[in-house]
Amino acid sequence: MEQQRPSVTLAAVIERGGRFLLVEEEDEGRIVYNQPAGHLELHESLVEGCAREVLEESAWHFQPRELVGIYRWRKPDSASGAGVTYLRFAFCGELGRHEDGRALDAGIVRAVWLDAGELRATRARHRSPLVLRCVEDYLAGRRYPLNVLTDYA
Hints:
The chain is an alpha+beta fold and 153 residues long. It is 19% helix and 43% strand. It has a single domain (7-148), classed as Nucleoside Triphosphate Pyrophosphohydrolase (Alpha-Beta Complex), CATH 3.90.79.10.
C-alpha cells in the first residue's frame, strides 16, 4: 500500500467587523483567494508558523489563540493524475498591528477583507475548497484550545 506524505500547511481565519482577511495570490496562472497560509518550516511550531505566514503574506501581525480545525485535502493534478495531499491546520486569534509598506511574499498580489457573503460568492476563485470550509467552521463556533497540539523540539 502506498503511503501518503502530506504537505503541512498553516492558515489563519481572521475576522474583524464581520469581514475576513484574505490574500489574492497567483496560483497556476490564476489570481485566487486564500487565507494567509503557507508551509510549516523546519524548527518552528505550528503556532509560530501560522503567525509568520500571516505577517509575510498580509503585513498584519497575528497571534493564534485557538485551533479552528485540521483539514486534509488532495489537490487533483490533471497532468500526472497524482496530486498533492495537504494537511492544513487553521487557527483563529488576535489581530495585531499592520506594517504599512511591508513587502509581501512573492506571488501575493494584495490582502483584502471580504464578508462571508462575498466569500461565498467568489467560491470559483478560491485556491481550494478549504478556504470557505475554514470560514464556515469558524462561523459555526468551532474552536479548540491550543493545548491539543504538542510540539517536541
